[in-house]
């Protein structure tokens, strides 16, 4: 049990408390956005049209976040964390403003990419700054504070999203980010000071461009395949083959670049590989459930946007509650055992979603989501901390960004796969009936359960705590 002195040394009342509060506010931007938009999917598509296109709202955001995260991490290791996170907050706020003003689905998709570019800096920089400011033991307590942001967002996000969609306008799910971004930036400018020598840095723009093009081509092929063109058509073959070729070229360029956007040395460390694999699967599972549980609740069970959002809110509530305790667990039993327990819980929750049907209650769905979220919280924290502990200060930004890059990429590819599955099952209907939507989303639940089992295997590759702190 922590003493009062230990609690004050890492709490909001400590000398570093204002920095911690700043990180909590910054993290709140991404946390709230991840929960608030899921409740508004049907409201947006009813207003702007394009149900078959709605996965792009997630995939373009996540792709932009994924490809920019390693760049921000590399720059942060050179010029410092503070300017990078401030740029991210500003970009995220601009994207939010543009999204709220969008008048078509295409425009909204484009502006979501701007938001993603901002989120690509906010998430990893918050984690990296925490890794710089606090020791391993202190970070176990700090995770409780950062997890509380996600816990609060898991309640406020669906609540606000449902209220805005049902009673005001879905546009407010983006406008609400503006005052939060202003306060977060002001807090960081005022209270976070770092003395990092600025160095000349040559960003790997070629690598970033190739990564964007290659990953974008694969996502395009997944989302539009079977809809805009047949899966076995020449167009589909060219897009997938071209995307794979560009990604192969990206890997080659990384071996020649002076400051590679994604250094290949990170793939030589077992802890980073295992951590990134688990993170990728976490991203796919999260986006699959947050995208399609509210859709199932509204489109199949006939619930309101508010109730649909609160149902999936159980997922994002379970995560921070378990993550807040993950530090105590991995300090006692190690990284690998903690991640394995979490993966087992996620697999159990994933299996329970297979029992969901048109007669299921919202409480049953929420219970499954809560178990999955609780498991993910026990996986995400120890795998990230283990990867950070394996790196020096000059590498920590890249390692942290690689972990979050994997999560974003997993989310981007995951939503593309889930979107392709659902669109094919509903025969690309713009307003699918409940009889079509129910079996379609059931396939998403099946895929989620399978991913949780694979994550359990990745967790077994994690080292014990002493393997990375020795």
UniProtKB/TrEMBL annotation:
Domain of life per record: Bacteria
UniProt keyword annotation of Endoplasmic reticulum present: no
Protein keywords: Cell membrane, Membrane, Transmembrane, Transmembrane helix, Transport
One Pfam family recorded for the sequence: MFS_1
CC per GO annotation: plasma membrane
Subcellular location: Cell inner membrane
Entry's transmembrane regions: 19-42, 54-72, 84-111, 117-137, 144-164, 170-189, 205-223, 229-250, 271-293, 299-321, 333-356, 362-384, 404-424, 444-462
Matches recorded under SUPFAM superfamilies: MFS general substrate transporter
UniProt-listed InterPro entries: MFS (IPR011701), MFS_dom (IPR020846), MFS_trans_sf (IPR036259)
Membrane topology listed for this record: Multi-pass membrane protein
Every Major facilitator superfamily (MFS) profile domain range: 19-467
Recorded family membership: Belongs to the major facilitator superfamily. TCR/Tet family.
Entry protein name: MFS transporter
Source organism of this protein record: Nocardia panacis
């Amino acid at each position: 049990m922590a003493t009062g002195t230990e609690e004050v040394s890492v709490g909001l009342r400590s000398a570093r408390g204002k920095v911690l509060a700043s990180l909590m506010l910054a993290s709140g931007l991404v946390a709230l956005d991840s929960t608030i938009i899921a409740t508004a999917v049907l409201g947006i598509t009813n207003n702007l049209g394009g149900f078959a296109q709605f996965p792009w709202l997630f995939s373009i955001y996540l792709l932009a976040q994924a490809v920019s995260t390693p760049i921000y991490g590399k720059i942060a290791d050179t010029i410092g964390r503070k300017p990078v996170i401030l740029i991210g907050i500003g970009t995220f706020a601009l994207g939010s403003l543009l999204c709220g003003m969008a008048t078509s689905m295409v425009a909204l998709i484009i502006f979501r990419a701007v938001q993603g570019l901002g989120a690509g800096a906010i998430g990893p920089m918050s984690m990296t700054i925490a890794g710089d400011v606090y020791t391993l033991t202190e970070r176990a307590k700090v995770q409780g504070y950062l997890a509380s942001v996600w816990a609060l967002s898991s309640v406020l996000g669906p609540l606000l999203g449902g209220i805005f969609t049902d009673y005001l306008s879905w546009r407010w799910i983006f406008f609400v980010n503006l005052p939060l971004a202003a306060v977060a930036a002001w807090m960081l400018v005022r209270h976070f000071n770092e003395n990092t020598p600025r160095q000349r840095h040559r960003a790997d723009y070629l690598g970033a461009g190739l990564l964007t093009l290659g990953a974008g081509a694969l996502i395009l092929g997944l989302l539009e395949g079977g809809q805009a063109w047949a899966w076995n058509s020449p167009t589909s073959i060219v897009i997938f083959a071209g995307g794979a070729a560009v990604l192969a070229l990206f890997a080659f360029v990384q071996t020649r670049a002076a400051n590679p956007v994604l250094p290949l040395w990170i793939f030589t460390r077992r802890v980073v590989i295992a951590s990134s694999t688990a993170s990728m699967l976490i991203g796919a599972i999260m986006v699959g459930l947050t995208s399609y549980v509210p859709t199932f609740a509204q489109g199949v069970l006939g619930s309101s946007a508010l109730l649909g959002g609160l149902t999936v809110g159980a997922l994002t509530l379970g995560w921070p509650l378990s993550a807040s305790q993950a530090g105590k667990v991995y300090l006692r039993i190690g990284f690998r055992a903690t991640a394995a327990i979490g993966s087992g819980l996620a697999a159990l929750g994933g299996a329970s979603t297979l029992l969901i049907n048109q007669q299921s209650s919202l409480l049953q769905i929420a219970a499954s989501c809560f178990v999955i979220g609780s498991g993910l919280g026990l996986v995400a924290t120890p795998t990230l901390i283990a990867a950070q502990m394996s790196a020096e200060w000059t590498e920590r930004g890249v390692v942290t960004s690689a972990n979050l890059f994997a999560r974003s990429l997993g989310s981007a590819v995951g939503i593309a796969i889930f979107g392709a599955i659902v669109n094919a099952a509903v025969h690309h209907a713009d307003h699918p009936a409940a009889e079509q939507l129910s079996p379609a989303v059931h396939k998403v639940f099946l895929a989620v359960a399978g991913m949780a089992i694979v994550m359990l295997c990745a967790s077994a590759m994690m080292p014990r705590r002493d393997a990375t702190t020795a």
